[in-house]
Amino acid sequence: MKLAHIQIQTNNIQQTLKFYTTVLGLSIVKNNEETLSIQAGNSILEFVENPQFNSIYHFAFNIPENKLDEAIEWCKNKVDLIFIEDQNVITNFENWNANAVYFYDNNGNLLEFIARHDLNNAQNESFSSKSILNISEIGIVNENPLALGKELIAKHNLKFFSKNDNSELFAAVGDDEGLLIIVKPNRNWYPTQTPSQSNKTQVRIENNEIQSELFF
């Protein structure tokens, strides 16, 4: 499953434009007073202006599976990576065979670079903004993660992520290319103490060459 396009909210579209183009070095697809679309590898990340918005999202970007250390160096003068423990910024997801680092954007959104070692996406080039391959995760907040997951699976021919221990608190739908991370409200977004909140989110997925629009 691929996350072709996600649409989320921002209360400062100009500062968001500055962060994603100047700090992360991504390209603009569309920009006006109300919307901003950014090319993130093979995905589109769209922000919609909402001056009253006062919450955050969590989403992740896939990077080449052999480039996490280079990504950390690349981030050093750009963003503050979040320490997990003992001055370490790397999270090891053993069951997922992946490693990740976390940081914030200008909106306070929790972003993640994740290297998934079961994907055949190693690169020889030095890490840069071009190494951001696609949006690999978007967090969805719902009172019943398992029930929503089952509904999405039935309606769009999807699957629960086989590497995840799906539960009433946390469920993942999709695969290494793209995941809907479904959590209950007020569950802290790992690795922070920030509780999850349900925010308007639109996602276009591609699964078996079929596109579907999802509204949360």
TrEMBL record:
A Pfam family reported for this protein in Swiss-Prot or TrEMBL: Glyoxalase
Gene3D superfamilies linked: 2,3-Dihydroxybiphenyl 1,2-Dioxygenase, domain 1
Record PROSITE patterns: VOC
Domain VOC as annotated: residue spans: 2-116
Alphabetical list of SUPFAM superfamilies matching this protein: Glyoxalase/Bleomycin resistance protein/Dihydroxybiphenyl dioxygenase (SSF54593)
Protein's name according to its UniProt entry: Glyoxalase
